[in-house]
Amino acid sequence: MASKRVEQIAAHLNFPKGMLAGQVAIVTGSGQGIGAETARLFANEGAKVVISDIDAAKAKKVADDINASGGQAVAIPGDMLDDKYLTELVKKTAEFGNGKINIIVNNAGYTWDGVIHKTTDKQWDTIIALHNTQPFKLVRAASPYFRVKDGAPRSIVNISSTSGLHGNAGQANYALAKAGVTGLTKTIAKEWGPAFGVRANTVAFGFIMTRLTAAKEEGAFVTTPDGEKVALGIPQAQKAAREDGDAAFKDIPLGRPGTATEAASAILAVVSPLFSYVSGQTLSVTGGRNM
């Protein structure tokens, strides 16, 4: 089995049809931001990509753009917090992929901040479920397509944050959740790597320009299943203090935030044949911050 896998890796290194040619990928939260860029990059490298997002219109737009550019994508929208949706997502992905799934990127999520003494049970439970429980359930539901001894490349990427690596004031729920995915990653790598060759890695992002790091006053929000609106972003005053004058991003050696495309490129690298001997690791994509 090992020799067969090495031969397949060597063949892929020529990249005649893209680094992910013939693979089928689910990218959750891919209606916008890092997820959408990840889906586009995967499609550019030959993968058939499933756009999973709670916003059906945005998911369709990403899929339509990929298909119009010559790639292959389908939108399968739904709520990650709905267990029935996860079952449907796996079923429809396997149908789209002619019976196979090679890649899962657990990217969907948002922040619901609050200082410890004011964080509600609802805030806590929602964020833990969204970033820990539901990614686990998705991986579990897809297990029949990963626990396969055919030598084909299979990879799972769980998205984390520097909040999970170092903690962050006002984000006890998010910090715990993002720390937790690293344990899930390592367990997948240890359980499914030996017999099935499945790789699992975590990508932890620092300051990436998305709706989660924009000014809260810009009005971005998500709606919980029961209809509550959760404001996203950083309050303008706090954001301005962090980015004041010449001190802007002074703790980032590269001196700037990252773009969604740069973040997505790191995910592409991790699932690509270039990282074929990397598993169970956490890649920090921070511009050098917290080194």
In the CATH scheme, the class would be: Alpha Beta
- For the record, the CATH architecture stands as 3-Layer(aba) Sandwich
Strand tally is 9
The computed structural class is alpha/beta
Catalytic activity: a (3R)-hydroxyacyl-[ACP] + NADP(+) = a 3-oxoacyl-[ACP] + NADPH + H(+)
Protein name: 3-oxoacyl-[acyl-carrier-protein] reductase
Pfam families: adh_short
GO molecular function: 3-oxoacyl-[acyl-carrier-protein] reductase (NADPH) activity
Polypeptide structure, described:
With 291 residues, the protein is an alpha/beta fold. The protein has a single domain (2-210, 256-285), classed as Rossmann fold. It is built from ten helices and nine strands. The strands form two sheets. A seven-stranded parallel sheet has the order 3-2-1-4-5-6-9, sandwiched between helices. It has a two-stranded antiparallel sheet with strand order 7-8. β7 and β8 form a beta hairpin. The chain is globular. The model has no long low-confidence stretch (mean pLDDT 90).
